[in-house]
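Structure (tokenized):
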């Protein structure tokens, strides 16, 4: 039996469809993330599961029980918000104990469970402090302890790391996953950060315009996205407009690129393509090399070179003016701005995608810190 089920759930706000016929089944103990940009409906799904928003149609189930119209306090869920939502006049221990007090848990058990929850998030020494005396990361740990101390069936997290800096976010990603794994609690996490989603989840549901467009494991989602939209949203993807030339018995394709140039794509595609069909050849930046002897090769003009510590990110202009990116490991030979180079990749590390009409990512976008090396 699934621990969480959303069955044909819909929600509109006026003329806007926030959620369109969502079907989602989450197994007991599973960590699933709703991933998507602002306005895609992910937080609305979470709030319907928590009981803060009522669906217009469909059913919300927790552990086989229909809770569609049940109030939040009768759903046995724990919630962690981005804004922490701590009581400023209560100590850390009192904040964590509040949910048990409301539920009528005895004083001795409340104290014992509060200590255990604070131990889980490594805040035992701060039990007597007030929220104003805590850092952002410590406040979020208190919020997490408060959510799990009531022993909920389901843990809901609404972008809990969005207000923290990069290093602290990475630390808390690990801590949240450790707490979730230790307690074996079914968890639904909402974020727009693909790094958080891939690093923490058992499965990821990518959302677009109120719908789930792909639900898969992080590895499958990254290596075999089912659409141009997913490929662009989950990591960076190089896209070349091509036409299918043929397909062999093993499922491998040959595609025509430009001026008679033929490229190879190995089998294992998520969809079937026919000769003459226009589509996109997609490959991740880390699968590109410069000047190596591989199955596929095209020319590219180096536009910028960016140092990222563990790798060099090289942006190039392709033969058709495409913005392409190669990620070269530190220590590799790095081209200079303006160089014309051979961009190569293996047939086994690329895939074909149909054109779903989504826009390519902004080539100016970068995640994290960087150092522009335009003179290299």
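Design, position by position:
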């Amino acid at each position: 039996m699934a621990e969480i089920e959303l069955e044909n759930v819909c929600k509109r706000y006026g003329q806007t469809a926030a959620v369109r016929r969502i079907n989602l089944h989450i197994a007991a103990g599973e960590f699933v993330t709703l991933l998507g940009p602002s306005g895609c409906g992910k937080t609305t799904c979470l709030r319907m599961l928590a009981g803060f928003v009522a669906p217009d149609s469909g059913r919300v189930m927790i552990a086989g029980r229909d809770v569609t119209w049940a109030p939040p306090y009768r759903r046995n869920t724990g919630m962690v918000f981005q804004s922490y939502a701590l009581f400023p006049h209560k100590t850390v221990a009192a904040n964590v104990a509040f949910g048990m007090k409301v539920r009528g848990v005895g004083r001795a058990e409340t104290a014992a469970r509060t200590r255990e929850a604070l131990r889980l998030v490594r805040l035992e020494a701060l039990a007597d402090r007030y929220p104003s005396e805590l850092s952002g990361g410590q406040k979020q740990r208190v919020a997490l302890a408060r959510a799990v101390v009531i022993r909920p069936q389901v843990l809901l997290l609404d972008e809990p790391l969005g207000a923290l800096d990069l290093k602290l976010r990475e630390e808390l990603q690990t801590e949240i996953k450790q707490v979730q794994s230790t307690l074996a609690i079914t968890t639904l996490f909402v974020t727009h950060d693909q790094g958080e989603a891939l690093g923490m989840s058992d499965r990821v549901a990518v959302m677009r315009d109120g719908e789930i467009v792909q639900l898969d494991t992080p590895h499958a989602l990254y290596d075999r996205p089912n659409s141009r939209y997913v490929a662009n949203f989950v990591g960076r993807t190089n896209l070349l407009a091509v036409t299918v030339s043929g397909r062999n018995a093993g499922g491998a394709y040959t595609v025509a690129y430009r001026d008679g140039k033929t490229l190879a794509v190995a089998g294992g595609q998520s969809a079937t393509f026919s000769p003459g069909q226009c589509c996109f050849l997609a490959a991740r930046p880390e699968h590109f090399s410069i000047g190596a002897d591989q199955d596929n090769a095209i020319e590219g003009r180096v536009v910028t070179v960016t140092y990222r510590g563990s790798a060099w990110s090289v942006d190039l202009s392709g033969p058709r003016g495409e913005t392409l990116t190669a990620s070269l490991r530190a220590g590799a030979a790095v081209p200079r701005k303006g160089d014309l180079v051979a961009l190569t990749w293996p047939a086994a590390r690329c895939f074909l995608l149909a054109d779903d009409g989504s826009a390519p990512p902004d080539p100016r976008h970068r995640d994290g810190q960087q150092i522009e090396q335009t003179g290299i």
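Reviewer-requested clarification: The radius of gyration is 24 Å. The chain has two domains: 2-223, 237-372.
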